[in-house]
C-alpha cells in the first residue's frame, strides 16, 4: 500500500512547515551533523547535553547509553543550581554512570580523554599526572553526589523500545516495502534520540515520545498510515497507544522540532575555529 500525505491538526502550520522543511533538507542522519562547537566560550544546559552526545559518539557508546546519560544530566540539573556546577564535568560523569546502568563498559580513562579533547580541541590527551587524576577524582566525586541527589533512582524506561514496537506494528499494517520506502524508522529514531538534548524529554511518558517521533517522521516524508484516520479512535496513534492526547502530542512535536532550532543557533554563536596553536 502506498502512504499518502498527512496534515496534523493542532500544530501551528507555519512553524510546523518551516521546521519540517528544515529537517527534510538537512538530513537527520548526515555525517556532518556534529559540527564543532567551542565549548570553552559558554556553559549552558543545552551545550552540556550536546557535549554528552558528541562525547558519546566518540566513545562509541550505544544510543541507549547516551540517552541514559542525557536523562541523568537533565534530572540532576532540575535539582541543583546550574551556576554551581561545570556542565561538561557533569556531562562526563553522566556518561560514566550511564555506562554502568546500561552495562556498557566505558573506561574512565577514555571518558576523561574524550571529554578533555572535546573541550580543548587540537590538544593531546592528558598524561597520567596531576591534571588527569584531578579530573578522574572530580568525576568520582560527582558520581556520588549525583547518586545522592537522584536518590539512587537512576534507571529509566526509555521510549526507544516503544518506538521499535510501534514501528513494527506500522510495518505489519502497510508492508515492509511501504514502511521502508522512506527511511521512516531511521528518521523517527533520530528525532527521538535528538530530543534527549532537551530536558523536556524527562517530562512525558515514553509512549507519547515514541508516537510523536513517528508523527514527525511521517510528516517529513509526506506519508500516512493507510486505513487510519488522522485522529480519534481510528487513528494509528490511538491504536498503538490508547493514552494518546492530541494536544500533548502537538506540544511534544513542537519541542522536538525546537531542538534543531536551538542547535543551529548555538552552532552559529559558538563555532569552533581552528587556530595554529589549537587555543
UniProtKB/TrEMBL annotation:
Q: Which GO terms describe its molecular function?
A: cyclin-dependent protein serine/threonine kinase regulator activity
Gene3D superfamilies in the record: Cyclin-like
> The Cyclin-like domain covers which part of the protein?
50-148
Glycoprotein recorded as keyword: no
Gene Ontology annotations of biological process type: regulation of transcription by RNA polymerase II
Which species is the source of this protein? Orchesella cincta (Springtail)
Q: Which domain of life is it from?
A: Eukaryota
Supply the alphabetized keyword list. Cyclin
Give the classification, highest ranks.
Eukaryota, Metazoa, Ecdysozoa, Arthropoda, Hexapoda
Q: Which SMART domains match?
A: CYCLIN
Stated name of the protein: Cyclin-Q
Instruction: Give the family, as the similarity comment puts it.
Output: Belongs to the cyclin family. Cyclin-like FAM58 subfamily.
